Amino acid sequence: MKREIISQLTRIVGKNQITTSPEELLCYSYDGTAKEFLPEAVVFPTNPSEISKIMELANSALFPVVPRGAGSGMTGGALPVTGGIVLAMSRLNRILEIDEINQIAVVEPGVITGDLRTALARKGLYYPPDPASLKFCTMGGNVAECAGGPSAVKYGVTRDYVLGLEVVLPDGRIIKTGVRTAKGVVGYDLTRLFIGSEGTLGVITKITVKIIPLPRAKKTFLVLCRSISEATVLVAEILAQHRPCTLEFMDRTAIGIVRDKLPFTVNDKIQALLLIEVDGDIPSVTIQGEALQQFFAGKNDQLTVMQAANKDEIDALWTARRSVSPAAFALKPHKIGEDVVVPRSKIPELVLFVEKLAAELNLIIFTFGHAGDGNIHVNIMLDKNDETETYNAEIATRALFEQVVKLGGTLSGEHGIGITKAPYVSLELDQASIDVMHGIKTFFDPNNILNPGKMFPPR
Fold first, then answer.
1. Max CA-CA distance within the chain?
2. Are residues 252 and 347 in the same domain?
């Protein structure tokens, strides 16, 4: 990048808010994929006006701009694959407003999701989306990827809570989308267009979300199953009669890598487990809990059902669940983590397919995730120094995606497309749909400076 461009960026944000140090650039060259692409500079804006000027300069000088939150994404969405600058949003990190009466909150994109939930809980309020990385992921990243989480089975995902946005467009214009009200149908729904757009259409600088009363009570159950088919079939039966706020699934490999974190003893014969929670007011949760216990009592004695007795046991269960993905590296040094979704009735078929695929290709592939909404995380473990494993892992990835589409599912439920899934998008989307999306990108960003190289199949 030319020195004059760096000088102009420095004049916009100040010398303490830009770096070209090789050591610091390295920190912004990777994300959850472990792939690396070095930016030419990292800029730390503090307000929308600075971002607007940066985008104007980028359009004039034609250099790429890649917005970045916490870098916790799993598909390479925040990687500077074509160089340029990384726009680190960490300094726009204020909770601007919590309106208790109208039940909305307004935040900047750098706010940590878990911090917002904590601030709301103090006021008896609740923001339901709860990605596994909520302790460090940001609201801006959540909106850009349309993040989900275990609570999605009852409460929905990020797009179900975003009412409005402030966005800096690629040419520097600042627009406001959406409303602060429960209803609003004036004009096109631009808010939904930006949600899940992975930073390719605009830079989000303000987020207005709806919030709800904090559930007053919760009951948590752990169900141990002696076969995977029993567990996956049980999911459909539970959802036909009950409405849990979470319904998580882990296969035997996932259990094995976090066994020491579980508050209960789980022996080696257990092939799968379900983590189930119900929430609401105290009378409702009592009724829901009793109904679940009666449901399980009517099943065969192959099931082992345990209820968490206190907050410590609940916290331990969730620590174990959220530790599955990072703990997987004890199996192999590298991982391909996919977040496919299938209709809930197809979960048994998907899990059986994955088991057969692992055996055929001699790979470690395990499954866990949000069984309540069909969002299963399929993890292909490998050593990239082993050419055979690397080749077989690529075969497994394509075979998985083909099977998911065949089952009526989708390639991603919450991680997005980024660069890792882009080569497979045409398995799910027809060419006409892809062309329309290209047209939208070109309209907003004719010079292709904003997060280029993401989402679309390589041409």
1. 73
2. yes
CA distance 3 to 243: 59
Task: Output the CA angle 357-360-362, nearest 5 degrees.
Answer: 100
Is the pLDDT reported for residue 459 higher than 80? no
Tell which of 358, 378, 406 closes a domain.
406
pTM of the model: 0.96
One-letter amino acid for residue 328 of the chain: A
Task: Examine the fold and report which residue of 406, 428, 453 is the final residue of a domain before the chain moves on.
Answer: 406
407 CA to centre of own chain: 22
Kindly state whether residues 287 and 400 are assigned to the same domain: yes
Tell me the pLDDT tens digit for each residue of 125-163.
999 999 999 999 999 999 999 999 999 999 999 999 999
What is the per-residue pLDDT across 250-299, written as a single tens digit (0 to 9) for each? 999 999 999 999 999 999 899 999 999 999 999 999 999 999 999 999 88
- 202 shares its domain with 230: no
Does residue 429 lie in a domain region?
Answer: no
- Residue 415 counted as domain residue: no
**Domain interval for residue 179:** 95-213
From residue 174, how far is each of 29, 365, 375 by CA, in Å?
28, 45, 35
